[in-house]
Amino acid sequence: MAIQFISDTKTFHLMGKDISYLFFINEAGYPEHLYFGPRIGAGDDIRYTRAFGANSTSATPPGVDDVRSYNDYPSELSFFGTGDYREPAVLPVNRAGDRLCELLFDTFDIVGEKPAISGMPSLDGGETLIVHLKDRINGFAADLYYTVYDDCSVIARRAVYKNTGSSDVRLERAYSFTLALPDRDYEMLSLYGVWAKERHIDRIPLHHGVVSIDSKRTTSSATLNPFMALLRPDTTETHGEAVGVNLVYSSSYVLKAEVAPDGTAQLTGGINDFDFSWKLAPGDQLETPEAVIAYSAEGIGGMSRAYHDAYRAHLINKRFVGSPRPLLINNWEATYFNFDVPKLCAIADAVNGLGIDTLVLDDGWFGKRDDDRSGLGDWVVNENKLSGGLKAIIDHVHSIGMKFGLWFEPEMVSEDSDLFRAHPDWAIGAPDRKRCYSRHQFMLDLTRKDVLDYIVKAVSDVIEQNEVDYVKWDYNRNVTESWSRCLEPERQSEFAHRYALGLYDICERIVNGHPGIFFEGCSGGGARFDPAMMHYFPQIWTSDDTDAEERTKIQYGTSIVYPLSVMSCHVSVCPNHQTGRVTPFDTRAVIAHLGATGYELDTTKFTDEEKAAVKLQTAEYKKVQDLVLCGDLYRIDSPFDSGFFTEAVVSKDKSKAELICYRRFVSVNNEIKRVKMAGLDPDACYRLEETGITAKGSTFMNVGFAPKYPHSDFAAVKYHFTRI
Ligand code: GLA
To answer: Do residues 14 and 155 touch, judged by C-beta distance below 8 A?
Structure first.
């Protein structure tokens, strides 16, 4: 039993891999948090740890004069209006206009298998506790879900808000969880960015009051990933406590860390309540997105590995998560919109026999799409450009033993498209107002059933009528003028969440409706890189910035939460199209091979030397692909803090490992750089293949060695360890 209920103390003890989470139902009937951290003794009564700060101005619960204020208790789900002045997780507006609720314990259930969230992705499996809370007075209720796993140190949490009363309730806030923390001695780590600079790292101390991150873009965004970690000030990559929270959600969200006057802290968040409300008629409920909360006593690296394990085991499509990925050539940076059948066939021919197995035809094959001003929505092949249609390319690609992939941007429509001319009302836009353009395009209203059905049919027709093996699903702009013709005025603030539900509906029908096809996600680079998308897309394009130097930071930051297997990374041409930088070809491969890899350049221009290099690079990648897809990641040197980027991937059984060493700049007399390996079995003996040296894991990890970087800027070298 991973979840224990100790009836005399009304305590719940949830036990995941290496972790314990405890709360109890206190004298006020309130679920009071006790502990989240390393595994502790089952059955131990830890209520002796309760401590209350002086709180002379606090109000008791209504009508009860002899218990403490709700403001004093560490919370499992904070609510407003009855004495708790911290950030509430929920704000219901009742019939009389009051915003009061007192969500107290009613009953609970423990189920062996986690119930799915209807219409939204979430982690699977795991024993689950459902705590039913009920308002003291009216029919408003909340169910709190907690799931623990024996194979990863995370707890999955979410709330379901229910109107079991007889009049409408309007939710003005509906977060997924509250997590109490014992003190305020934390720093917040978050992942910020922008196009071509996704998931860089910020770390700032908490202060009294609220520190928050959010998205108001109806997408999880490159601006701030839906992830926050609270770290002790002395937490490093390898040591110290880290608590992470990551939302399995792709629309506007918020995460907040708050320090209260008594020196405690709490985390809360979920659907962004900015520009949000949700009407619950009697009998209705709102299911909130899942928050995946990780705990590590082994620093940021331990937290990352907890997330990687959780997502690979319980979130990402099991058909694809650990299996070899298509090793592809994508034509985007090779041709942009300027291609025809002979050119595409030549790009594929040029890599035939070099270990690349899939040609992905990117943007521009459909409608009247010769640049980015037209054609989106018209998912019909442009035979003027591609004479003989997709069939001509697909037949050729298949005849040389390669697979074929195709780009779509299903959620979009160009003003200059047959779709927009036929259905201008399908594009998101508010009455009497002009629409904002972004990349010259508009967005389809995914809150409408007819629009969803059109998208599913249009995309399915193409991939069913052609032998498509792979789909790249792009999303290149954010919502403006959030308004839907099909929602009543009082429901317009439901738009952002309903957009996400529409997106999941079409993903469910298109992706899961075509189980043989491999789907990759994308969003103008990596702007929708979130766990919900990972449920559908086992790999996601990490960034449009393909410069190897810039990629060290983007990939390092992304790996703080997400496994390497999800990061799609390509080798591109130099000078790099985004930065103009020139980096060695081998370095570009070393960095791009730290993920699901591919090439994105004009292969018809390859020299014989480059062809030989590609053949070697892909062969080497295939040898270690299982480490990259399924192994444990150890980050050794951060490109944010140093001129080096050093990472190791180690097989789960610790029998083999790869070490990647990258140095930014060469100098005439470079200082000696020593690298200490990580993640090996200290007691096992290993051979360092490139040097023939054999030593114990403990030796490689404690003594280290000096990698032999090639004598150039942006130099990279790889080493391999085999247990003997
Ligand atoms: C986005 C993607 C690119 C490419 C283009 C096509 O920017 O991130 O990889 O597919 O769109 O328009």
So the answer is: yes
Rounded Cα distance between 510 and 515, Å, is: 9
Task: Name the helix (H) or strand (E) containing 633.
Answer: strand 632-637
Phi and psi based region of residue 704 (left: phi greater than 0; alpha: psi -120 to 50; beta: remaining): left
User: What domains can be seen in the chain, in order of their start residue?
Assistant: 3-40+66-314 (2.70.98.60), 328-630 (3.20.20.70), 637-723 (2.60.40.1180)
Residues 6+ apart with CB under 8 A from 376: 367, 369, 409, 412, 413, 414, 417, 419, 441
Please state, in angstroms and rounded to a whole number, the distance separating the CA atoms of residues 276 and 281. Answer: 16
Tokens representing residue 561 in the block: 């939460």
Using a cut of 0.90, tell me whether the model's pTM lies above it.
yes
- At 536, is the secondary structure helix, strand, or coil? helix
User: Which residues are designated catalytic?
Assistant: 474, 544
Nearest-angstrom CA–CA distance, 237 and 232: 12
Q: Which residue, judged by its Cα, is nearest atom 12 of ligand 1?
A: 363
pLDDT digits (tens, 9 = 90+) for 180-192: 999 999 999 999 9
pLDDT the model gives residue 55: 64
Rg, Å, the chain Cα set: 27
Taking a C-beta distance cutoff of 8 angstroms, is the pair 316, 307 a contact? no
Pocket test residue of 361, 369, 476 for ligand 1, highest count of atoms within 8 A of CB: 476
Sign of CA dihedral 265, 271, 275, 277: negative
Best mutation site among 474, 533, 537 for ligand 1 pocket (most ligand atoms within 8 Å of CB): 474
| Torsion, CA 107, CA 113, CA 117, CA 119, rounded to 10 | -150
Residue ranges for the chain with pLDDT beneath 50: none
Q: What is the pLDDT of residues 449-496, one digit of tens each?
A: 999 999 999 999 999 999 999 999 999 999 999 999 999 999 999 999
